[in-house]
């Protein structure tokens, strides 16, 4: 995959990923918070080590969510100007972030490797049994 970089719709918030950093995984998330945040039945996320992702811009906002599905908080970073979600800092996985794949400049090499929160998916959405499909989030214990 090429160098990972991206930005929000208006371009005020940008991010880069350290050269040579490959995604840990690309995950389809069906949780109800991702559904609400994306306005779609799921969100596609590129999972990376937090230390390799550098976000900048004058309108970076942050909002903490804790859903009915889990009591672990998630810090969601977004552009306060255009509203684009940028990434999530996962409380259940310290040191890991999930970049919203739609914000990447080059999405051509992305393929999902797992699906999480499948129990919250919309009834008409099919999961891909060739991937790791988790009914909840990843277990970290």
Automatic annotation (TrEMBL):
<feature type="domain" description="CENP-V/GFA">
    <location>
        <begin position="4"/>
        <end position="114"/>
    </location>
</feature>
<protein>
    <submittedName>
        <fullName>Unannotated protein</fullName>
    </submittedName>
</protein>
<dbReference type="InterPro" id="IPR011057">
    <property type="entry name" value="Mss4-like_sf"/>
</dbReference>
<dbReference type="Pfam" id="PF04828">
    <property type="entry name" value="GFA"/>
</dbReference>
<dbReference type="GO" id="GO:0046872">
    <property type="term" value="F:metal ion binding"/>
</dbReference>
<keyword id="KW-0456">Lyase</keyword>
<keyword id="KW-0862">Zinc</keyword>
<dbReference type="GO" id="GO:0016846">
    <property type="term" value="F:carbon-sulfur lyase activity"/>
</dbReference>
<dbReference type="InterPro" id="IPR006913">
    <property type="entry name" value="CENP-V/GFA"/>
</dbReference>
<keyword id="KW-0479">Metal-binding</keyword>
<comment type="similarity">
    <text>Belongs to the Gfa family.</text>
</comment>
